[in-house]
Design goal:
345 residues; alpha+beta
């Protein structure tokens, strides 16, 4: 209610015993300066006290952006019409059972790939929901059909699959329907152009794209991932080390504070995670984290992990050990660690 009042008028209200707070006194007590060069750049807009900004400056001196680690960072697959292209196990089995020849069954089975969604990715592990992707990449038809009519060629090559798609002929769902998608290839039965399909056939680090708490997991070769995920292809030597850092308390604080960028709250975009600085240390310094990650993976992959309280508590204890090592890798002081852990609460 002090808006529009002069300073002396505000003081008069205070002297009368009114329950007011001087905006001038509040400002002078709580103000802090923000050097423009530290807080406002082309990609980052941060309003924090100087301790937090200095922390950002420090970790960027110690670390190297992830994209410079020799890794490759990719989006998950967009089908434009998940209802038809992402199927459950029962539907997959039905399509294969409807194949007329063994040759058709073999061809059809080869292009139906297990797929993970963002919700299937948990911290340290994944839980496959028995879903599959029908993968006919852009360009497949024109490379193989010769002079035959494109749709007739597809129908002749995959009759059981063609009949599956025809169930969605009049179904629009949330998008434009099967035949006029934004994410299709040359023809409606093809997926959008993508030059990294072979990368899904490799072991990778996958994460849930939008989450309030980062969830990274190692996923084996052959699993594909859809648009609510991103994934990293990296060397066998660094994969578990990177997984440990990315699942640490430090990453959660620093990424959301400094590197998340605009867009959806809690979104971990591939382009932004590529900027995240991670210390490029030799293998012997990576090993303590790798050994602890191995222990966690052994526990979290146990069939009874979800119901075994002792194992879950053991994972939490190991995570704290990883946190301590990560703090040391960045050379953080006790005060800086308290700043981070206070910001996580």
């Amino acid at each position: 209610f002090t808006e529009g009042l002069e300073y002396e008028e505000i003081k008069e209200y205070q002297e009368r015993g009114k329950e007011t707070v001087s905006i001038f006194e509040y400002f002078n007590k709580n103000k802090f300066s923000i050097p423009q060069k530290d807080a406002f750049t082309e990609n980052i807009f941060i309003i924090e006290d100087l301790r937090v900004l200095r922390l950002k400056e420090k970790i960027e001196k110690v670390g190297r952006p992830l994209k410079k680690w020799g890794v490759r960072i990719y989006f998950g697959i967009k089908t434009g019409f998940n209802e038809a292209f992402i199927i459950d196990t029962e539907t997959r089995n039905k399509i294969l059972a409807n194949c007329k020849t063994e040759d058709e069954r073999r061809r059809t089975e080869e292009i139906i790939k297990p797929i993970l969604r963002g919700r299937d990715i948990e911290k340290w592990r994944y839980k496959w929901a028995g879903l599959y992707l029908i993968l006919i990449p852009a360009g497949w038809t024109n490379r193989n059909r010769g002079g035959e009519d494109p749709e007739q060629f597809f129908k002749n090559s995959f009759p059981a699959l063609y009949n599956h798609f025809m169930h969605f002929k009049t179904h629009k769902g949330k998008g434009k329907g099967l035949f006029d998608r934004d994410d299709q290839g040359d023809y409606w039965w093809e997926l959008r152009p993508c030059d990294y399909y072979p990368e899904f056939e490799k072991e990778k680090i996958v994460w849930q794209r939008v989450t309030q708490s980062p969830k990274f997991a190692i996923v084996p070769p052959g699993f594909y991932c859809e648009a609510t995920t991103h994934f990293i292809i990296c060397s066998d030597k660094t994969r578990k080390f990177l997984l440990g850092v990315l699942n640490s308390s430090f990453f959660k604080f620093a990424f959301y504070k400094f590197y998340m960028g605009g867009g959806i709250e809690g979104e971990i975009k591939g382009e932004f995670i590529g900027r995240f600085p991670i210390p490029k240390v030799p293998e012997d310094q990576q090993k303590p984290i790798v050994d602890l990650v191995d222990k966690i993976l052994s526990l979290t992959q146990s069939p009874d992990y979800e119901t075994n309280k002792q194992k879950r508590e053991e994972v939490k204890a190991i995570e704290k050990q990883i946190d301590e090592i990560v703090y040391k890798l960045y050379g953080l002081t006790e005060e800086e660690v308290k700043l981070i852990e206070g910001g996580l609460s």
